[in-house]
Amino acid sequence: MGSQPQPLPTPATQLGREGLAAILARPERAVVAIDFDGTLAEIVADPEQARAHPDAVPALAALAPHVASVAVVTGRPAGVAVRYGGFAGVAGLEHLVVLGHYGAERWDAVTGTVHTPAPHPGVAAARAELPGVLDAHGAWRGTWIEEKGQAVAVHTRRAQDPQAAFEALRTPLADLAAHHGLVLEPGRLVLELRPPGMDKGVALAAYIREVGAESVLYAGDDLGDLPAFAAVEKLRSDGMPGLLVAADTVIAELAERADLLLTGPESVTNFLTALATHM
């Protein structure tokens, strides 16, 4: 048992309550999987300035020794998430796994190394054409291109009208992605061009099979987390208990499908800390 148990919020759904009960009953057979941006780290105008909430690492370190595995599942490169999260060399997180680029990359704390595939050639080709596409649609001013190695993203958060720029670019960037054999992944004022065949749902389901987990918790906040929600829903339909946590209510579909609604990284870290005290 851990320290004096802290109050835990009650999931709004029966499936969520069953998922939480299963995790608490046999934590050593549970996987806790968590998105990074917007879930463990606040959303900021410049993604390079994003950092995990100060309480995130202590919360994960308190929780990790009790469960089968803690996995951070992110669209960021795995190494970047490790640096921005401060996950390396932390007592209690010796077996943390970061599944980066939607699972295409993997960092294991036990080795401290990143396993990454060769970059898709379409990413470089699309990146070379991006400035022209942005300029042609009058959306260059205030947008920002983020190099992600295995992907490339266009952020509109700093544009004069962020939502208008986002909507104006969706179709042309989808066309650009398709031309180079990529897919377009929309998020919160960000449009990412990345290789097909990998998403957070595929990555999460594969990792759960690898670990041999009997229950799962997934927490996320954005459109890219919907495939992970779908993976947990599929696992639940097959008999595995699971708990779905929305770290924010901005994305309506995510909030509607969640068992538990939280309000950002601070709320998430408080929940993880409380969860650890019940194990």
What does this structure look like?
Strand 8 (183-186) and strand 9 form a beta hairpin. The strands form two sheets. Strands 5-4-3-2-1-10-11-12 form an eight-stranded mixed beta sheet, with helices on both faces. The protein has 279 residues and is of the alpha/beta class. The model has no long low-confidence stretch (mean pLDDT 93). The protein is built from nine helices and twelve strands.
List the helices and strands and how they pair.
Elements: H1 14-25, E1 30-34, H2 56-63, E2 69-73, H3 78-85, E3 97-100, E4 105-108, E5 113-115, H4 121-136, E6 144-147, E7 152-155, H5 162-179, E8 183-186, E9 190-194, H6 200-211, E10 215-220, H7 226-237, E11 242-246, H8 252-257, E12 260-261, H9 265-277
Parallel strand pairs: 1-2, 1-10, 2-3, 10-11, 11-12
Antiparallel strand pairs: 3-4, 4-5, 6-7, 7-9, 8-9
Helix segment tally: 9
Through-space gap between termini? 5 Å
Q: Biggest sheet: strands, sense, closure?
A: 8 strands, mixed
> Given the helix and strand composition, which structural class is it?
alpha/beta
Strand order of the largest sheet: 5-4-3-2-1-10-11-12
Give the % helix. Answer: 25-40%
Shape: globular
